[in-house]
Design goal:
heterodimer, A: alpha+beta, Glutaredoxin, 4-stranded mixed beta sheet, B: alpha/beta, Ubiquitin-like (UB roll), Alpha-Beta Plaits, Rossmann fold, 3 domains, 4-stranded parallel beta sheet, 18 helices
């Protein structure tokens, strides 16, 4: 397992260092670097965290602490299709809880998890800033609104069956 | 008063206070007692626990007094019904997710949480909900972690980050899922923790404590085939009485020795003796390095927290570390050689116990390269508990004397327990060994006190010997910065804990600045009252070289008293 990861890391190493070089070597750069690193790798595995800690000269514990605080950052690989479903006040009132339960039941994953085949991951988030579309979810960044449980799973299925194009 | 002041009211009483205070500080100046859990003066001021709430009449709001600045005309109430009930409720919330097992908890009597619950009159916990579930961590020989008792006050995290610059533990997650944990949830043993135990001193509950070895020590004491030898570190005798209601800085050497004899130790010896021996070996090493263009500066090697720190963060300087074992390890090594041969006791029947102000000493005793020298290490706190378990009260005990052979020490050995002490002791001996003249002014005041980094230049026989002293590991980093920026030193003393061993992670809890000051005064008091104050004048040190070790730095001395280090 680790051999695969090492291999992966070496793929990103130089790109990662390039990102870090654009910033000051201190902890105030940490958030920006984490954003770009996650964009690059897709998630923030330990190895990446260690490189960032090393280069920015902050304790590895600080890096993992920040990552664990923000929902946006993930230290485990995300699925090919990433569902973020809103549980902010408006969406909640309009029934996002039932949608979440339906997704969890149908695909066997709960928030923060990815299906075993690596296809789908689920994140429950606080307010996507599109309350007019509530209840709303994004799939790989594309918003789908005015949902109900059936509509939501239908959309997800379309992605999984390659019937829905990404934007 | 040159400083700006403000006039304000606390509980309808007008006061004038310095304008840079918080309401908590102002109230305390008036002698008011406001409960606090997360607050740690100058070190952790974050308003997290919400137990120090007060009511601000001007706004009608409740606020955490520890982070509320004083202001002109501010009107504060500290004891209204609303304040009392909200404090109590907040405490109930904390308790609702706390693993309550007071009778079996190591912190029991010492626990701030338990004490404040009593003070606020919490008689029931009205909230029942989900409880955090985290693994206990007993992976190290020094520190035990039980996150289910943690109330997320963040004191340990602050100390580890700001005072020790190690950051072995951090908050992970958010909201209910938050836990203070090692990086990547590794075992503490795999983390950069240096086992200094400063976190155990500030934890307000039983979430971080020392690993106890009391039962193991009872076991060997109860074994008629075991010959159990104990040593006591310099800083234990000036703090132990705190655990028995004594005043800070009370020197209880005689009673402590008496207690150890009552507990059944076969020989009670003094680590101060091997502190004197350390000076002989380390002083010789310094002189040789200066004479032979050796690696300089020489770094002291007594503090095991410091040793792990340099092994991890500054391995390129490992050659600068003195090869001397710490006094604890020298003692253990000598019991298993010098003493064992003299007394003709089978090695397997000897057990060596240390009483240390330190949690890192437990780790040091188990380091591979020195394993077997010392069998069990108890902290000052554990010794206090053991004395109580035996049904004894330190205050009522007869004073007793150390056993001879390794019980005699000088004032130089005594001051090992304070920051600057090892350096001062070394200079006293190095001066006389190099110049052959008697040192006129024996007190090096410039090396004493609580300044984070102290430097001095001492003229020894025409050579300007430059020295530095650092305590607290964040200060150690400062010395490395100085060295990297081109400052040169001959000799640097490092101690992991603020104040040195007197502020060690194994000392009685709740030491205020005043207590630390008193402990330090007591250490120098012991020194002042000693007839002999230089290590090389200790008659038993002379004896051990004459009879056994030959001379400092001899082949046998190297074999028994010196060690090596590893990059981590």
């Amino acid at each position: 397992m680790s051999a695969v990861k090492e291999f992966k890391l070496s793929q990103y190493q130089s790109e990662l260092e390039k990102i870090i070089r654009n910033y000051e070597e201190d902890e105030f750069s940490l958030l920006e670097v984490l954003h770009e690193a996650q964009e690059l790798v897709g998630y923030l595995p330990k190895e990446v965290q260690k490189i960032i800690a090393d280069e920015l000269q902050v304790a590895p514990g600080k890096v993992s602490s920040v990552i664990s605080f923000y929902n946006h950052f993930s230290d485990s690989p995300k699925g090919e299709y990433q569902v973020a479903i809103c549980k902010g006040t408006a969406c909640y009132v309009k029934g996002s809880k039932e949608i979440i339960e339906k997704i969890e039941e149908k695909y066997g994953i709960s928030s923060g998890e990815t299906t075993e085949d690596g296809k789908l991951s689920l994140e429950v988030v606080r307010c996507l800033g599109a309350c007019g579309l509530s209840p709303v979810m994004t799939v790989n960044g594309k918003a789908h609104g005015l949902l109900n449980p059936e509509k939501a799973t239908k959309i997800i299925d379309k992605y999984l069956n390659n019937e829905m194009k990404e934007v | 008063m040159s400083q700006e002041t403000v006039k304000m009211f606390i509980d309808d009483e007008e006061i004038e206070v310095e304008s840079d205070l918080t309401v908590l500080e102002a109230a305390r100046q008036m002698g008011k007692k406001i409960p606090t859990l997360c607050y740690l003066k100058d070190k952790n001021v974050i308003g997290a626990c919400r137990v120090c709430l007060i009511e601000v009449e001007n706004t009608g709001k409740l606020a955490a007094s520890c982070i509320t600045p004083v202001a002109e005309d501010l009107r504060i109430q500290t004891n209204t019904k609303r304040v009392r009930e909200t404090r109590k409720m907040n405490l109930e919330f904390l308790l609702s997710n706390h693993d309550i097992e007071c009778p079996t908890c190591l912190s029991n009597e010492e626990c701030d949480l338990r004490q404040i619950a009593e003070e606020l009159g919490v008689r029931e916990i009205r909230f029942e909900g989900q409880k955090s579930s985290f693994e206990k961590d007993s992976s190290t020989p020094s520190i035990f972690r039980d996150p289910e008792k943690c109330i997320l006050c963040r004191r340990c995290e602050s100390i580890c980050r700001d005072v020790q610059s190690v950051q072995a533990i951090n908050a992970d997650g958010r909201g209910f899922d938050t836990v203070i944990s090692t990086t990547f949830f590794d075992d503490l043993m795999e983390s950069p923790c240096v086992f200094c135990g400063q976190c155990t001193l500030v934890c307000p509950t039983g979430a971080i404590t020392e690993i106890e070895y009391i039962d193991d020590v009872w076991e060997v004491l109860g074994d008629p085939n075991k010959h159990v030898v104990v040593q006591t570190a310099p800083a234990v005798r000036i703090a132990l009485s705190e655990a028995f209601g004594g005043d800070a800085g009370e020197i209880c050497t005689g009673k402590m020795v008496g207690a150890l004899k009552k507990l059944g130790f076969d020989k009670v010896y003094d680590t101060n003796f091997t502190a004197d021996l350390t000076i002989m070996e380390e002083g010789t090493e310094l002189i040789e390095r200066i004479k032979n263009d050796g690696e300089l500066p020489l770094f002291t090697s007594c503090s095991p927290g410091w040793i792990k720190f340099i092994e991890q963060y500054y391995p390129e300087y490992l050659d600068n570390l003195s090869s001397c074992k710490s006094p604890q390890q020298m003692f253990g090594s000598l019991v298993n050689s010098y003493y064992q041969e003299r007394e003709d006791i089978d090695k397997k029947d000897i057990s060596v116990v240390s009483i240390m102000p330190c949690t890192a000493k437990k780790f040091e005793a188990q380091r591979e390269e020195m394993a077997g020298d010392v069998d069990y290490v108890l902290t000052t706190r554990e010794l206090a508990r053991m004395i109580k378990q035996a049904g004894l009260n330190l205050n009522d005990l007869e004073e007793s004397e150390y056993d001879q052979l390794m019980g005699e020490s000088t004032g130089a050995g005594a001051i090992f327990g304070s920051t600057g002490g090892v350096m001062e002791a070394a200079l006293r001996t190095a001066y006389e060994l190099i110049t052959g003249e008697e040192l006129a002014e024996i007190d090096f005041d410039v090396l004493r006190g609580f300044d984070g980094v102290k430097t001095a230049a001492v003229n020894i026989g025409g050579l300007e010997v430059k020295v530095a002293v650092a305590h607290g590991l964040a200060n150690a980093r400062k010395v490395f910065e100085m060295i990297k920026n081109g400052e040169t030193f001959h000799f640097v003393e490092f101690m992991a804990c603020p104040g040195g061993c007197l502020g060690g992670g194994g000392q009685p809890l709740k030491a205020t600045e005043e207590v630390m000051q008193k402990r330090m005064e007591a250490i120098y008091e012991i020194d002042k009252n000693k007839k002999l104050r230089k290590s090389h004048e200790n008659p038993y040190i002379k004896k051990i070289y004459e009879e056994y070790l030959d001379h400092p730095g001899s082949h046998l001395a190297h074999q028994l008293l010196h060690t090596e280090y590893v990059q981590r």
